[in-house]
Each structure stands twice: as structure tokens, then as C-alpha cells.
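Retro notes
What went well: the complex prediction finally ran end to end.
Inputs used:
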Amino acid sequence: MNSPKTEHEVLQTILRKAYREKENVEVGDQWQQEVMRRVRNLGALQPTPGFPEMLEQLVWRLAPVTCLLIFGLTVLFAVSDFTSGYEVFQLFMNGTEELTFAQFVGL
Amino acid sequence: MDNDSSTSGDAEIVGQVVAGDVHAFEHLLRKYQNHVLILLKKHLPYDQIEETAQDVFIRAYQSLPTFRGESSFKQWLSTIAVRTCYDFWRKHYKSRELPMSSLTEKHQVWLEEAISAQASQSFHEQSLQKEAREILDWALDRLSAADRMVLELVYLEGYSLRETADLLGWSIANVKVRSFRSRKKLHKLLTHEISGLDRGSTT
């Protein structure tokens, strides 16, 4: 019986040889025409866009999200009660000696 | 020198194709068709070679605007070919049923004889390669797509870890670990078959 190392080496030699034999398979010669037909169907290539074009694409891609965000924030500001917040702030600033913490939090 | 002129010639043709001359692509196709075919023949089943060769060149055509000439066109095309083979095996392994059958007794005997100490040099040279190929295909079919590709590139073709990493787009560490594991899996699969035969013959 061979040692495991020799066994592995022999196995590798056999398998490598079998693997290389696969190169000898014959393949038809029609596929190249099919490639060119498909390439012609695809047409001329579009050049890769430069940095300004990519930036422009990014800006347009983000435009709907930005519009939605602006609309959402506008609605939020419109429905928020600014007045009460402002009044509490003024009360707190003007008459601090009269306003205890308990009153401020409504207890 | 020839290599340099060939590389600059390729870059020139690539420039023409990217500029809109579709027909110039045929030069690249004719020049590298054999190189791609040799790669595909080793990695794929016979009936998939032509179709995959078409896919490789179509992918190459569509990716031409991204070709920067940092490596040679041949190397760049090899990368596309190897990754297309990997994609084929990933799809194939997803849709297949897990093969459970073991090697036939004929194959087991052949394998045992091939690696036994009694086997002479002439056995390796004259024995039927058909059996070896069938055993190899059987074993590779039991590995994952990633293990299969690494094993074929490193163990069977003799590519370095760096070359394999470049071809597959993986890190060298990943290739190294996978290469070690897949080789162990292969040997375990085959030696398990031989030990199975031994057990069968003693009972």
C-alpha cells in the first residue's frame, strides 16, 4: 500500500492527465457567426459616461426623493403647533422666578 | 516584442469597436476563439461549450467600454470566460438534484489499481483515460460550484493562487482556503470509494 502522500500524488497525476484530455474535444464552427449576428443586433456600444454625466444621472435619480422629502417636511411644519411652543419658551424666559418646574411640566 | 505589438493591436481594435465599428469585433473573435474554447472545454460539459462561448464573447463585447488596458486583452477575456463558467456551474448546481449514487464497481477497481503500489508506469500511460475522466466528472459533480472552479484552476491546471484569485475576482486568502478544503474533499470522496470497495470484497 502506498503512503497517503504518494497516493495523493499518484491520484493528482492521473486526474490532471484526464483533465487535460478534455482539451481534445472537437467543437463546431458555426457559433462564431451566431456571435457576430448577436453583436450586430446589439448595435454600436455606448461610451462609458464621464464624471459630469454620472453626476447628472445621480442628481436626476435623487430628484424624486428630494421632492418627496421637501413635501413631507412642509406638511410637517404646517401641521405642527409652533405657537404653543413659542409661548412656553417666552414664559420660561421672561418669568423664570414664577414658573416652577412642577408647573412647567403641568403637575 | 510580439506580445507588445499584439497588445497594442488589440487596444487599437477595442478602440474601433467602442467608437462604433461593430464589425471590428470579428478580428478579436477570430484571434481569441481558440483560447476561449480551450478554457471552456476544460471547465464545461461538451454540450455547453458552444453556447457558453457565445455568451463569453457577447459579455466581452458589452463590457468593452470598461476595458482600460491595465492587463492584456487575452487576460481580460480569460477572466470573463472563467467567470462565465463559474456562473454556469452556480446555475446548474441550483437546479440539479443532489447526486447520491456512488462509483460503479468497475470505476472503483480502476481507481484502486491506479493508485496502488503494484500499478506500473505503463498502467498510467496505457490505461483508458475514459475511466479517469468519468471518475473525475463524478467527483467534481459532488463539490460546490466554487470548490469545483478552484480545484480545476489550482489543482488540475496548476494556476497560482494569485492568478486564480484574479480570474475569479476573489481574495487570495479565500482561494487558498477553498483550494485546501476542496482538495481534501476530493481525496476524501475518492479514497472513501476505494475503502468501500475493500469492505465489500472482505465481506
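What we learned: The first helix of chain A runs from residue 4 to 21.
What to try next: split runs per interface for comparison.
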